Amino acid sequence: MNGGENTRSPTPNHTIRPERRGPAGGHDRIEGVNARTSQLSDIAAAAGTPCYVYDAGAIRAAYATLDAAFGGYPHAIHYALKANSTLSVVRLLHGLGSHADANSLGEVDVALRCGFGPDQVVFTGVGKSAAEIDRAVSLGLLAINVESPGELDRIDQRAIAQGVRARVALRVNPDIDAKSHPHISTGLKSNKFGVPIDEAPALFREMSSRRGLHPVGAHVHIGSQITTLDPLSKAAAAVVALARDLRGEGVELQHLDMGGGLGISYDGSPVVDPAEYVRALVAATRGSGLKVAIEPGRVLVGPAGVLLSTVVDVKQFPGAKRFIVLDAGMTELMRPALYNAYHRIEPLIRRRGDDVPVDIVGPICESTDAFARDRNFPPVEVGDVIVVRDVGAYGAVMGHTYLRRPLPPEVLIDGDNWRIIRRRQTLDELLALETE
Ligand code: LLP
Q: Are strands 370-377 and 356-361 parallel, antiparallel or unpaired?
């Protein structure tokens, strides 16, 4: 069930038909996407599967919740493009008043292309190349988040060579355990990120003395998919204390960048309420009077996206496992293979019958290519459409073309309409960089 969209005009606007229930009854709503079964059925038929589908309304609502929770306190929400940098999604966030957090020159350029001014972009990255530093300095970004004393030197030199002062923030490593998956924790001193917070005062003094640098902020990001408030509050308190000490020494910052990291509930278990998180940051910072910046990615776009896939095989090993084989796998969603991450999965239209334990696997020739193991799942047949939830963040962006699998399309639902915001890659496009 591939393809389909390439025969249509590049960005058609489809009107979603009024709701109808599937033949076997069942689900009429996909939580987090506000899309109904018939909408997703239409999209799967027109765009083909695998296919990512995002709901603009869910992104708007998530942004509004964070923004409102600041309650007028000076702040900037820098959407972390790494979560999903598809142009239409980034443009949507720009239109909501978001600022941007970029982690590569590619992301900086995507942000600029989507309408962000350089003074709305912060640039983080543990290993910025000379070309990246040069361009970040020449663009005059809001802040380059500095990751090491060596990088401080390199930015200073490039700024002097260009005859400018680069706005920089120091990324501190507070040695706080985010209590998330070890692969996405960044705030311990065993992690490669930032500079130990004890070294920060001396480095700020150093930055203040450099001709090419203008220290404007402190930055902290201790990890991703954090599901308790405590580590986030502790990290915020640590940078607020740092800013207070610096003020005592005459180094006056403009903003405190608390990073991203707020988790979402992939499995229905409780997570931190986003408004409560923002209120905790404001409470920690209020005394300083400094502007708060945050860099949320997952919480803004994660629950707004699903991956549509089609069952290509169902197989039962006698007396042993039952496998549901999908046309999507680790090429479209790396998270289960990479972090053993849990994603809710359900058939778009539920058939009658009892749930049985199954492995839901992809078509890739790797044993790690499984979305779920021993998951209770209703009966399915070849051709049924399956919905994998919460893939709006770190889904498409981490997709790849292993086995020469072209990148799938992405669709944005907005109100009653939907449109393809990235069409399916063709094999010719995939091969276009190569010579024979
Ligand atoms: N700021 C910085 C400096 C970051 O490194 C990240 C994420 C964010 C902000 C956004 O974090 P968020 O709000 O989305 O948690 N691929 C992994 C997640 C890696 C996150 C990397 N940095 C996953 O699929 O879970």
A: antiparallel
Give the atom of ligand 1 at the shortest distance from the alpha carbon of 398.
16
Closest CA to 116 of 143, 138, 141: 141
Which member of 320, 365, 432, 433 is catalytic?
365
pLDDT digit string, tens, across residues 365-411 = 999 999 999 999 999 999 999 999 999 999 999 999 999 999 999 99
CA-nearest residue for atom 6, ligand 1, is: 260
Rounded to 5°, angle at Cα 142 from 154 and 252: 85
What values do phi and psi take at 292, rounded to 5? Answer: -100, 130
Residue 392 in contact with ligand 1 by CB distance below 6 A:
no
Residue 43 CA to residue 57 CA, distance in Å, equals 17
Angle at 13 between CA 7 and CA 19, to 5 degrees: 105
Q: Is residue 363 lining ligand 1, measured as CB closer than 6 Å?
A: no
Q: Alpha helices of 249-311 — where are they, by DSSP H?
A: 274-285, 298-301
How far, in Å, from the CA of 161 to the mean position of ligand 1?
Answer: 33
Burial 179-199 (b: 16+ CB within 10 A, else e): ebbeebbbbbeebebbbebeb
Whole-prediction pTM:
0.92
> Using CA atoms, how far apart are residues 136 and 123, in angstroms rounded to an integer?
8
Contacts of 97 (CB under 8 A, 6+ apart): 63, 67, 77
pLDDT tens figures, 179-191: 777 676 666 666 7
Q: How far, in Å, are 36, 38, 298 from residue 17 at the CA level? A: 10, 7, 30
